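User: Second chain of the day. Same drill as before.
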Amino acid sequence: MGLIDEKWEILFDKYHIENEIKENGCFYITADQIREVKEPRLMTKFDTRESRPAVFGRKIAILPVTRGKYVLGEFELYQDFPDMVSGIKQMTGAKVPDYYETIDIHDIRSEANAINIMGIAGILDDFLGENHMVQTVSGRMGSGSFGFSVDSFKNEAHYISVENSQVEIDGGFENRNVFALIEGKNVVHSNFLIRQLYYPVRLWHGKIRKRIRPVFMVYSNNIFRLLEYEFTDIFSYNSLNLVQERNYSLENIEIQMEDLYGIWRRTVVEPEPDVTFIQADSFYKVISLVEHLNERPMATGEIAQLFGFRERQSDYYFNACRYLGLAEKCAGEEGVKVAITLQGKRLLKMNYRERQLGYVRLILKHQIFYDLFGEALCMGGAPDKRRIAEKMRQLRVCGENLVERRSSSVRGWLCWIFGLVGDTGF
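Assistant: Same format as last time:
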């Protein structure tokens, strides 16, 4: 159990929060009450479902309503991202003008940097079908006053009033016609907190006449993933609807099936490492973790916080990186941390195309993936989970009680490989 979990257990016990929610539908807590155990800013930032404290269970979530007050209830506050497997099909090339000498497209490290380059490269213009979008706002500001309904797990709407809560806008771009609000991330998540789009939209809805277009941008693996949303009812938090999605690259991303076949044919299978077999379904998150480890070593708790994981899930993704020879544990003055390996550093220095093929090569060195990839080539489609589980048992990659669960990870990684050419058969 992490420190934040422990502190929230103290607050739940002291203020009988779970009972208050059952009896009254919600519970309001002040920043001063939270500060009794820890800084409110650290105690209330849960950008994914998984990042919420254990005591919240599956249903309880939290929203800010003023600068010094929050509301807890059984609210539906999160939205799943669409699956990325077919993302290559919506890939569009973009280019930074060569007269910008201060920009290195291979060294885009922060969300702010990614948003800035997205604007310079004309990515946002192309995505929105607009011209001359210019960044005009960013940073923290007051929300103003507004109210809205939010869905609960009891199939009823709950009304919430917000009064000058703090809102953080990663980027606001404007032209003659529209105003685009950008929420940017440089880490891959499975879902996101709708508030990150809704509060900024409500703030500016009361201030300007132009159409507001909220956009979520995820920058990882040198790919800009843009998703445009709309709120079909401005007074309903849960009226979020995906309008369009597209991916952009500043590099050559073309990979053919022949490339994958060539790597498979030349691969020499190696003995299985003495590492826990993979239980990490999303290879996109594996890549994202390698990228962040390239910035600095991280404790498993830090990884959990970054990705919105439970700490156990952090171990799953560390072990996935370790399985490929991309991460290792190291001891230092601050304790044991996870660090990138030299092989991982070399991989991240490659251009996009060679780097993806490098990941494929590392995966196919393992007998389970080598064999199943070959079967997929012969069948013209993917082995089903039954066949994957059968192969796992044959090769004894993990205990019987783990086969079914971890077969999803094997399938997820195979999906990622074939998704590089946009024709998965999965």
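The longest strand covers residues 211-220.

User: Great, on to the next one.
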